[in-house]
Write a structure and sequence with these properties.
Residues 2-102 form the Vps41 beta-propeller domain. This protein is mainly β and 102 residues long. The protein is 4% helix and 50% strand. It is built from one helix and ten strands; from the N terminus they run E-E-E-E-H-E-E-E-E-E-E. A hairpin with a 5-residue loop joins strand 6 and strand 7 (67-74). The longest helix has 4 residues, at 41-44. The protein is globular.
């Protein structure tokens, strides 16, 4: 389960084990989608987030536990919704709906 807030906090929790992680971003986060990354979700916890800064950001744990953020798209207004399915990430912004194949 993932949740996000306007203060930039993103929390991802495992509903079975209770294990969770928190990441803080320097910008408001409006939307989050958990990504199934070839079965290694427990080790990498990949998520896609978007918000008022107008960026779609892919985040995953790196080698030493730190988060690695990659901006996948920016510059077309706030990202209001994000969804993931298989290798695809879809998001909505002021221009329309976009799809990215990871």
């Amino acid at each position: 389960v993932g949740s996000c807030s306007q203060d930039g906090t993103v929390v991802v929790s495992n509903t079975i084990s209770g294990e969770g992680s928190t990441q803080w971003y320097p910008r408001p986060v409006q939307s989050i989608a958990l990504m199934d990354s070839a079965g290694d979700f427990a080790s990498r916890r990949p998520v896609a987030t978007g918000g008022l800064a107008g960026q779609l950001v892919h985040s995953a744990r790196g080698w030493f536990g730190g988060a690695k953020d990659t901006v996948l798209h920016a510059g077309e207004g706030p990202v209001t919704a994000v969804a993931c399915g298989g290798p695809l990430i879809a998001w909505a912004n002021d221009v329309g709906v976009k799809v990215f194949d990871t």
